[in-house]
Write a structure and sequence with these properties.
Largest sheet: 6 strands, mixed
CATH architecture of the largest domain: 3-Layer(aba) Sandwich
CATH superfamily of the largest domain: P-loop containing nucleotide triphosphate hydrolases
Shape: globular
Radius of gyration: 22 Å
Distance between the termini: 61 Å
Number of strands: 13
CATH class of the largest domain: Alpha Beta
Number of domains: 3
Strand content: 15-25%
Number of helices: 8
Bound molecules: guanosine-5'-diphosphate, magnesium ion, zinc ion
CATH topology of the largest domain: Rossmann fold
Structural class: alpha/beta
Helix content: 25-40%
């Protein structure tokens, strides 16, 4: 009996769509896999064999990572979508969302949407060539209002790949398509940021299930949500359900918070003391980096706010 290797693109109750090469097989589970729920997730790499009636999943290969909401395995990146206006970005909420992604060990791509609503209000009054992947500097960023520029540059200093796009005008979408063309992408971001619109603009015909709808489903009698991977024409897959709607802090110790904060993580090895919280300790390389403008001051201030929150949570636990 030949064993084939495939990827689960849709998990239903005891029935799975598995992509094997160019084919999608509807598979049942081999008996021993059937005993507990969640043994097979969308995104799982599996071994399947054909049977008289169809095909069965024989084995699930080890997962690289996994999310609970939505239930999905082997995610390659989280595309965090944040609108530059309507709704306005709230940086510390975005920072909390990024912490969730970091805590799951997932690479983040940051997408600022609705650039059409703010471009042209910057210093020189003209929209520049926004939409390039940002590596050195941010093309077009000078066309943005100063406050938006500070926001975007803070995350650039953090090291996140950044895309400035408009799902409405199509600005910047081609570069974003390129970024998503391999592997599995899960979207995240506040309601109203434009996740559904963006995905439909990237590939007309795709329909991202909105956060609103999935929350309603989640409250219903059958709380199991069936997440599906949608194939992008240029390659790559995107989950049809956004993730990370909760903004609670990951369960970390105070001295671990910096590990989840890329620009703190980058500079912390230079601190004089191990376990430095980067607050007021002498010889702190993170504070030095803030003073030198290598870390955005507002990002550092948000780090301190969330550090305080982690500490308070710890105190309450021992009270
Ligand atoms: N001006 C503008 N509006 C947008 C853009 N993208 C989405 N929208 C609008 O923002 C609202 C929320 O979009 P939606 O895709 O439902 O957001 P989601 O909750 O993140 O899925 C809708 O009214 C969209 O038409 C954009 O690039 N520019
Ligand atoms: Mg939506
Ligand atoms: Zn330090």
């Amino acid at each position: 009996m030949t064993t084939m290797r495939g990827t689960v693109v849709k998990a239903q109750t005891n029935l799975y769509e598995v992509r094997v090469g160019d084919e999608v097989l509807l598979c049942a589970l081999r008996g021993r896999l059937r005993r507990e729920a969640g043994t097979v997730l969308t995104g799982d790499e599996v071994e399947v064999t054909r049977t008289q009636g169809g095909a069965v999943i024989e084995r699930v290969l080890p997962r690289r990572n996994q999310l609970v909401r939505p239930p999905i395995a082997n995610v390659d990146r989280v595309l965090v979508v944040q609108s530059l206006a309507a709704p306005d970005p709230v940086p510390i909420l975005l920072d909390r969302l990024l912490l969730q992604a970091e805590a799951h060990g997932l690479p983040v791509v940051l997408c600022f949407n609705k650039v059409d609503l703010v471009a042209g209000r910057g210093r020189d009054g003209a929209a520049g060539a926004v939409g390039e992947a940002v590596e050195e500097g941010i093309p077009g960023v000078e066309a943005l209002p100063a406050e938006t520029r500070r926001l975007v540059e803070g995350y650039r200093l953090a090291g996140y790949p950044i895309y400035l796009v408009s799902a409405r005008t199509g600005q910047g979408l081609e570069a974003l398509r390129q970024e998503l063309r391999a592997g599995v992408t899960v979207l995240a971001g506040p309601s109203g940021a434009g996740k559904s619109t963006l995905l439909n603009a990237i590939q007309p015909g795709l329909r991202l299930q909105t956060g609103e709808i999935s929350r309603k489903l989640g409250r219903g009698r059958h709380t199991t949500r069936h997440v599906q991977l949608l194939a992008l024409e240029g390659g790559g897959w995107v989950a049809d359900t956004p993730g990370f709607s909760r903004l609670d802090l990951p369960d970390v110790e105070p001295e671990e918070l910096g590990d989840l904060w890329p620009e703190v993580r980058q500079h912390a090895p230079g601190c004089r003391f191990r376990g430095c919280l980067h607050r007021s300790e002498p010889g702190c390389a993170v504070r030095a980096a803030v003073d030198e403008g290598l870390i955005a001051d507002w990002r550092y201030q948000n780090y301190l706010v969330l550090l305080g929150e982690v500490e308070r949570r710890l105190e309450e636990r021992y009270r």
